[in-house]
Amino acid sequence: ELKSDGTFYKSSEKKLATAEEFEALRTYVILLAEKFGNEILQGNIKISPYEKSSSQPNCVYCEFSPICQIKTDERNNVRKLKSLKNPLKEIMDFIKNNSSLE
């Protein structure tokens, strides 16, 4: 949130990423895109959606459901998103363990 003078409120400052954190996020996204692209090229195109919680199924509102065509009996295979305790640490670990993709 910005003040009228263009500076950030103190409560917003702690939510901002540093230049190093932003670079880590950028690298993470690039590595994930490359990883998923390689998986697609290797033929991995199985239906494997995520959902945040079973009380709020994503497939109900998904604009790709006509393409995916996941069946009701396949809903048991929907992956659950895990909650990250320290997202930046997990991103840094992912980058460290997947730097060979660069």
Summarize the structure.
The longest helix is centred in the N-terminal third of the chain and has 23 residues, at 19-41. The chain has 102 residues and is mainly α.
List strands and helices in order, with pairings.
Layout: H1 10-13, H2 19-41, E1 50-51, H3 65-68, E2 79-80, H4 87-97
Parallel strand pairs: 1-2
Helix pairs in contact: 2-4
List the main descriptive attributes of the protein structure presented here.
2 strands; mainly alpha; two-stranded parallel ribbon; 4% strand; 102 residues
Task: Tell me what the structure shows.
The chain is mainly alpha-helical and 102 residues long. It has 4 helices and 2 strands, in the order ααβαβα. Helix 2 packs across helix 4 (87-97). The protein starts with 9 loop residues before the first helix and ends in a 5-residue tail after the last helix. The relative contact order is 0.15. The model has no long low-confidence stretch (mean pLDDT 81).
